[in-house]
Amino acid sequence: MSYAKFTEISGINSGSLSRILQGSRPISVKQLELITGALGLAEDALFGSYVEECFAFFASMRRIRPFIIKCAVLDRLDCIERIVLRLLDNLSYVPALFDVAEELFASKHHQAAALLYDNVSKAEKFQHSERLAFCRYRLFLVELGTDLESNYRAAMVFEDYVNRLHEADQLEALKRLIDVLVTVHKWKRVDELAAEMLRISQIQYDLQAVGGSEKQPERPIYFYILYAWLVRSAVCEEYKDYPGALKYVSLYAEAEWIREKDQSAARYKKQFSEWAIANGYLYRVMSGDAQAIDEYADFVADHPEEIFIALSQIVQAANQFGYDIDRILERFSDYFPFKEMAGEQGQYNVSVISEKSAQFLSDLGVYTFKKNQGNAINLILEGLDFSVNINSVRNVITCMTLFEQYRDYADQEAKKKFKKLASEVHRINAKKNVVPLSFV
Fold it and tell me: Which superkingdom, per the lineage (predicted)?
């Protein structure tokens, strides 16, 4: 291909192309794209060579930033890593790399962002800076997924950094930590974090009234006050302290102290008021008040997003107090297995619902056993399968224990399925270098 033909096809003017070929001018990312297209190559074919080009003259973030973003779009993390390692020989690039990481995170290129956050945090590991803490927070968020034990490990790594964050960021970070710890039933720590969230949010809300900080949290500050009370009521519920739970319910039931009068405030007040009513019925049910079951069911029937949560709690109460809830299960049979339903403030936390779903299946198996042993065994196996998939150790142990308890009622097909699932549990445990459970 002639020089003139290449300039025509690429769209690069002859003067610029000449200086590029002579090595007297750096190549921009846009020019790289034009050259690649003119040569008929894959979009990232020259990326490996361009990494060196980024440092051929001087390291300019004006050129490097768009290249990192392009690498993220095309999943060339190898090129990003090479660039970042070279740049961090000079720590003055740390702030710029952090800004690019934030840009990638906002555009949902999470793995590329994580690579930058990780390297920035390593560069600042002796600084004890707010930026270091924020990098660890972002890495924690990126690591969250469907594996509950992995989420818990990520939470434990991040927890040491949470109090180094700006107060506005601490509030959402505490909420995220609480949501993870709830799924693994670390209730003592959940209560401690909820108390800290309440302390910070009340201080910030008071400061906001007289000006406060320019930086605002992800949600309105009053939300975190309400959420802290909600969480602390849930902790009391787990400890069967229903009077204590009702004390917190009364706090988030009426939120007339909220100064804001906009639509968002009205929605939050309505949502927490509805949760207060639902939880009032729930605590009556869990205290042994059978009459409250139908009242609870009637209430959630008008709030479909609450039905699955209510069902899971009603089944637990039925197992504890011997309630007959066949009519409730029939009434809401379309709502299990769980189907995602959005409420006023969006969907429930996915991990929390996943853990609830696993527990619901085993609880329903226990309830069903008295009337239909075969169906009960199938529900327990379904719960075990689901628990293995989300790596919920607590529910895996529960389901395996129940199966052993009911083994005499299982047919050969069920025993075969259990053995297969038990092997998978052993495999997972072996990967974690822990002693496997002795269920075969």
Answer: Bacteria
Q: What is the DSSP letter of 346?
A: B
Structure tokens at 241: 């302290």
DSSP H stretches of helix in 184-241: 187-208, 221-238
Average pLDDT along the chain = 89
- Alpha-carbon gap, residue 27 to 362, rounded angstroms: 62
pLDDT tops 50 at residue 411: yes
Q: Which tokens is 428 given?
A: 């997972």
Q: Check if the beta carbon of residue 221 is closer than 8 Å to that of residue 209.
A: no
Q: How far apart are CA 123 and CA 80, in angstroms?
A: 16
Q: Are 309 and 334 in contact (CB under 8 A)?
A: no
Query: Long-range pairs for 378-382 at CB < 8 Å and ≥24 separation?
Result: 378/414, 380/406, 381/414, 381/417, 381/418, 381/421
Residue 144's contacts (CB-CB under 8 Å, 6 or more residues apart) are: 151, 154, 176, 180, 351
Per-residue pLDDT tens over the stretch 24-45: 567 788 888 888 877 788 989 9
| Cα angle value 42/45/48 (rounded, 5°) | 160
- Write down the pTM of the prediction: 0.87
Contact between 92 and 123 (Cβ < 8 Å): no
* Dihedral pair phi/psi, residue 235, rounded to 5°: -65, -45
Give 343's strand partners. 346
Query: Residue holding tokens 């290249």?
Result: 67
CA distance 173 to 138: 10
Q: Average pLDDT, stretch 242-265?
A: 95
Look up residue 299 and give its two tokens: 């209430």
352 by Cβ neighbours in 10 Å (0-12 / 13-18 / 19+) ranks as middle
User: Helices 130-143 and 167-183 sit at what angle, rounded to 10 degrees?
Assistant: 30
Average confidence (pLDDT) over 336-364: 72
pLDDT for residue 151 is more than 80: yes
Query: Is residue 433 predicted with pLDDT exceeding 60?
Result: no
Beta bridge partners of 346: 343
* Cα distances (Å, whole numbers) of residue 409 to 352, 388, 395, 402, 413: 32, 23, 21, 11, 12
